[in-house]
Amino acid sequence: MYGNDFAPPEDAPGGGLLGEVEAAEAALREAAARARRGGAAPDEDVEAYFADVINADQKIEPRDWMPEAYRRTLIRQIAQHAHSEIIGMQPEGNWISRAPSLKRKAILLAKVQDEAGHGLYLYAAAETLGISRDELVELLLDGRQKYSSIFNYPTLTWADVGAIGWLVDGAAIVNQVPLCRCSYGPYARAMIRVCKEESFHQRQGYEILHTLAHGTEAQKAMAQDAVDRWWYPSLAMFGPPDGDSTHSAQSMAWKIKRFSNDELRQRFVDMCVGQAEVLGLTLPDPDLRWNDERQAYDYTQPDYAELMRVIKGDGPCNRERMAHRRKAHADGAWVREAAAAYAAKRAERKAVAA
Ligand SMILES: [Fe+2]
Ligand SMILES: [Fe+2]
């Protein structure tokens, strides 16, 4: 094993992050077996029912009443997540034709294709909240909904594909494993599958970096340079520090979010230090050191002013990413039209036959 957090249970206390995903999946199955009733009874107070479901760690389903703000929060979060998966295909897609071997190309293709799949599961989960896929795409293309700012950084060398897998997919998993226990059923279920696939992404990135770091001096330098560039943007993926985070408290109360931004960021740092040692690469933080009292690593915070600039549209690749997405959407118009015409024709034939 490569020293990552996805080792088998006997190697990682509590089974590691993937162990947590398995446990969340088992809990979901159990909850489904326990609660077979179809939402609140007609004479039941729907607000009380909602509160009961949340308190009992059960799942809210699309048929259930939910507060409007809960619905809106979920739409915003799931949509942003879906957009990130789709835009996130670009930085790595950029390397598919230049992967150094056929094997590397096949692996990267599969990974980028997985990200498309994640986008689709998540758009489908958002649609259960009463918004259409067309509306969601429009909100992205108009710039009214965001995607993760990490994808506005360029992929300059092949080692960036490794650093993205290790750090960006790694940070994504740390963020997403707790979402497997999110109170909204369709989102929680989508996250279980997404997290399992993300663990493969993290490993493939780690393996690329491991190979480079144990290759020639030039290859090792390329791996180090990629880690130097991706480290702080990856830390910024957890969002602003807890004191400045606007949506956190309510999301925690609704059990959409289970841990604060800073808690998750710390968990990620603590996970990466040992993995970097196995790689033989250095994390670019001279102040990174173990704090015995806190039982965690002290580390330098990312530049949150830069994060805000990139979120607002001023990252190195924001314009390029959106232009590419708009063009892809326009180029795909004939496919959507053809699919809609085919579906209409089939429906018509079915109606005639009936
Ligand atoms: Fe993904
Ligand atoms: Fe991924």
From TrEMBL:
It comes from the Bacteria. Keywords: Oxidoreductase. GO terms for molecular function: phenylacetyl-CoA 1,2-epoxidase activity. The keyword Oxidoreductase applies. InterPro entries: Aromatic_CoA_ox/epox, Ferritin-like, Ferritin-like_SF, PaaA, PaaA_PaaC. It is an enzyme of class 1 (oxidoreductase). It holds the Pfam family PaaA_PaaC. Its EC number is 1.14.13.149. PANTHER family: 1,2-PHENYLACETYL-COA EPOXIDASE, SUBUNIT A (PTHR30458:SF2), PHENYLACETIC ACID DEGRADATION PROTEIN PAA (PTHR30458). This is Ring-1,2-phenylacetyl-CoA epoxidase subunit PaaA. It comes from Micromonospora echinospora.
